[in-house]
Each structure stands twice: as C-alpha cells, then as structure tokens.
C-alpha cells in the first residue's frame, strides 16, 4: 500500500524509530535497524510526488506568512508605505498580498507606477484591470514636465530616440527621476519592492529590510527577498492572481517593449491559465527571470546592462535644479528671445542645453567661468523643451551645443568636445 500523505509517512517513520529505540540493542541486529528505516522510506509506503507537493505547499505557506509580516511592518509601523509596481510576476504577488491584508482598501499602502512611454501597450491596460479588480487607484509618474500618458509631449521635449542616443540619460529621465519624484511626492518613508535574491548576483544578498540608496533614511522592504520565480508563479496559480498577459506570450519578465524579448525567443515557454506550457526551466533557473530584459543594451563601460539605475547607489543624483542658476550666463526664456539675439547685430554665445544631460552638467563650471571673463553676452537656452526650434535655428541635434552668433546673424556651431574656457575662447576668437 502506498502512503499518499506526508503526515502518514512521518508517523510511520516515527513509529519505526520508537520500535528500534525501545528494543535492547543486543536483541536488534544492525541490519534489522537498517531494514526498519529502509522500510519506512521504501517506495511501497512513500509517494515521492505527494511528498514534494506537500513540501512545496509548506514552503509557500511559510513564504506567504513571512512576506505578509514584512508588509505589515511596512504599512503599520511606517507612516506612508509606497509600492512602486511594475506589474511583473513578483509585483502582482505583492499586490495580492497587500489586498489580502486590507492595505489597498484602507490606504495604508499607495501603489505607484512609472510610465516610461516605452512600455508594452498591454502594461498600462493591465494596470487598469488590476485597479478595478482590487479597487484602488495608482499614482502614475513619468518624465519631468510631461503630462501623464502624453507620448507626443515626451517626444517633443526629450526626443523619441533618447534611449538610442544615450541609454543612461534615458534611464535617468524616464525611470530614475520620475521614480524618485514619485516617492518624494507621496512623502513615503518606506518603499516596498519585488526584488529577490533569485534574480541574480547583483541581488543575491538582499534582506527583507534595508536602507534605500535614495534620500537618506528611507526604508526599503523586500517582502519576496527569499522567493524564487517558481514560488511567485506557484502563488499566482494557487490564488488565481491576475497577472500580466504577456506571460502567456512567452515573457518571464516585462519591461520596455524596445528591449524586452520572450525567453526562449521562440515563445515556447508560456504561463497560460495558471500553469506552464512548454519547459519552464528557461524561466525558473537561477538568475533567468530577467534574461529577456535590457536585450541589446550596454553600459557606458561596455558591460552588459542588467539594471535601469533605480535600485543602485547614487540613484539620487538626478536633475533637481536647472543649470547656471547664478552667475554671468543669461537665460533665454523663449524662442522669440533667442531669435532676438541672432538679429540684434551683436556677437554673442549661446549654449543650448538640457539640465538632465550629463555632458551639460560636466561643462557647467567651465562655461560659467567662460561667461565671467568674456566681453560678449553669454546665454543659455533650454533646448530639450524646443527640439524642433533649436534644430532649425541653433544647429542642435544633441546636447550641449555651443554656438557663436556673429554680427550678421549667422550662427556657427562649436564642434569640439573640449569645453574648457581656453578652448571656447579660442573658437570665439577664430569666428570673430
């Protein structure tokens, strides 16, 4: 007879142990002892599949309780918990756990989303679905100065190809800055997120709580720190949790549409109707969850890109201010102001810039020093908000662009990347 219960197997093993222990060793040969224990674990009395299934359920139950305890601390002990939700597998688990605890209904946890304007169309539609399902309203943040969901406004201000031109600046503009602005706007003191040790070596040592690398003192709760991706899908299946529709099309994790692919690429592994189709191994192996993310992208040093910058040290260094706020560099507030300078009949220098651009930031000190010692009027014009204008009138396709305006109104671009005082002075002298 087979044993179909973990409890029964444990009881049988306990009985066998007691029998051996109560009989004098002189009476029970060693071989008999071995045989009794072997009998308790033999195929005839042990259903391996059932044992594994019950063991998995025990594990998941413990992980659920642990995660909910961490979420309870986040939402009860801190004043204003915020959960930035990317709607991937771990995040929908956290959403469901927060719902079970009642924190979405009573407002003890606010869900925040960052729209990069490059997400899959299904992502923001799925957000609407879970808002209705769980009866909450997410706070959505996007690139600074752009209305929510207004892709045309984003393209006009930052350029549709920013991610091709400078992926680090794209991450800063579309992910890191709105993410941090969202946390500040919502006045959180505890950020909940779905990072896990299973996601890769960069995250292999995270704990349930840590300090976030954003604005000193912010607590960071990782309620799924010890979960695997398989645990997440087991939970989704157990409770029939609403999850991202692209899991059914072969995507283990979902980011920007421009650099996220199915794994394997033929889409043969899928999660459909709360169960896997195909071989789940390519998704569930260690550090495999994010293999389909950041595809084709590299960091400045040539290394493979694995993070967008939100969770790394130094993430707080974004553009919270304008450039050249004080000093001799004068601001041009409008297109008309810029045209007036070109038509004034007076030589001048205009720097076309974007405050978020790292190259503009790097030249800030030198250009300020140049303006202080120059006999010419030196101006700044924020070009990321008027891309068509600066391209047509101020030689600008990327930032920064320094122009010398001649007395006849012609505008000559400084082509060098040497933006020191001496180099700029030499170019101005050459043109005038």
UniProtKB/TrEMBL annotation:
Keyword Signal: yes
Protein name: Phosphoadenosine-phosphosulphate reductase
Signal peptide residue numbers: 1-18
Gene Ontology BP, a term: sulfate assimilation, phosphoadenylyl sulfate reduction by phosphoadenylyl-sulfate reductase (thioredoxin)
Residue ranges occupied by any Thioredoxin domain in the UniProt entry: 310-432
InterPro entries per record: PAPS_reduct_dom (IPR002500), Rossmann-like_a/b/a_fold (IPR014729), Thioredoxin-like_sf (IPR036249), Thioredoxin_domain (IPR013766)
Pfam family, one: Thioredoxin
UniProt entry tagged with the keyword Signal: yes
PROSITE patterns xrefs: THIOREDOXIN_2
GO molecular function, one term: phosphoadenylyl-sulfate reductase (thioredoxin) activity
Keywords (A to Z) from UniProt: Signal
Gene Ontology cellular component annotations, sorted alphabetically: cytoplasm
């Amino acid at each position: 007879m087979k044993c179909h219960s973990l409890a029964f197997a444990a009881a049988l093993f306990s009985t066998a142990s007691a029998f051996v222990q109560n009989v004098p060793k002189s009476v029970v040969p060693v071989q008999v002892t071995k045989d009794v224990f072997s009998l308790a674990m033999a195929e005839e009395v042990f259903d391996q599949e059932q044992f594994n299934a019950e063991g998995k359920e025990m594990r998941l139950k413990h992980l659920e309780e642990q995660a909910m305890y961490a979420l309870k601390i986040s939402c009860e002990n801190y004043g204003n918990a915020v959960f930035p939700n990317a709607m991937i597998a771990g995040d929908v688990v956290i959403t469901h756990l927060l719902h079970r605890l009642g924190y979405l209904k009573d407002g003890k946890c606010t869900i925040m989303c960052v729209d990069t304007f490059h997400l899959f169309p299904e992502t923001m539609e799925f957000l609407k679905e879970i808002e209705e399902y769980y009866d909450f309203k997410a706070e959505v943040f996007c690139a600074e100065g752009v209305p929510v969901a207004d892709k045309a406004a984003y393209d006009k201000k930052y350029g549709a190809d920013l991610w091709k031109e400078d992926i680090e600046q794209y991450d800063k503009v579309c992910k890191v800055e709105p993410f941090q602005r969202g946390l500040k706007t919502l006045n959180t003191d505890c950020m909940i997120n779905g990072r896990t040790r299973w996601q890769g070596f960069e995250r292999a040592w995270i704990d349930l709580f840590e300090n976030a690398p954003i604005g000193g003192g912010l607590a960071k709760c990782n309620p799924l720190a010890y979960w695997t991706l398989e645990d997440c899908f087991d939970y989704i299946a157990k409770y029939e949790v609403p999850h991202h529709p692209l899991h059914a099309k072969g995507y283990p994790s979902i980011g920007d549409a421009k650099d996220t692919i199915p794994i394997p690429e033929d889409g043969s592994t899928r999660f459909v109707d709360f169960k896997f189709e195909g071989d789940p191994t390519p998704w569930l192996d260690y550090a495999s969850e994010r293999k389909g993310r950041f595809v084709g992208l590299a960091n400045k040093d040539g290394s493979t890109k694995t993070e967008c910058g939100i969770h790394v040290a130094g993430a707080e260094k974004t553009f919270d201010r304008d450039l050249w706020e004080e000093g001799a560099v004068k601001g041009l507030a409008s297109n008309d102001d810029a045209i007036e300078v070109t038509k004034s009949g007076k030589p001048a220098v205009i720097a076309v810039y974007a405050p978020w651009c790292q190259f503009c930031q790097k030249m800030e000190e030198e250009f300020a020093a140049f303006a202080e010692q120059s006999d010419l009027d030196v101006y700044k014009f924020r070009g990321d908000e008027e891309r068509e204008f600066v391209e047509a009138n101020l030689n600008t396709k990327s930032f920064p662009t320094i122009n010398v305006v001649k007395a006849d109104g012609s505008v000559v671009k400084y082509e060098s990347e040497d933006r020191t005082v001496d180099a700029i002075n030499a170019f101005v002298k050459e043109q005038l």
